[in-house]
Design brief:
Helix content is 79%, strand content 0%. The protein is built from three helices and no strands. The longest helix is centred in the N-terminal third of the chain and has 25 residues.
Length: 71
């Protein structure tokens, strides 16, 4: 049974990573350097921490992007 849980957890982890990678592609950043991508994410995490207005603004942008393809 422990092996099944481990396998299921690994599958879930893999699926999540693929989905997150898809967000990079969707944002038009597929060919950017990894260091730039990580820097963008770190900066966004800092700017949105405790800043509900910025979180709401970015959430709106993301929701609109998903809306354009029906996701």
């Amino acid at each position: 049974m422990a092996r099944t849980i481990t396998t299921d957890a690994r599958k879930k982890d893999t699926r999540e990573k693929i989905e997150l990678g898809g967000l990079i592609v969707k944002a038009g950043l597929r060919y950017e350097k990894r260091a730039l991508l990580l820097g963008l994410l770190i900066d966004a995490a800092k700017r949105t921490k405790g800043n509900e207005a910025e979180r709401a603004r970015l959430t709106t942008i993301g929701a609109e992007a998903f809306g354009h393809d029906g996701e």
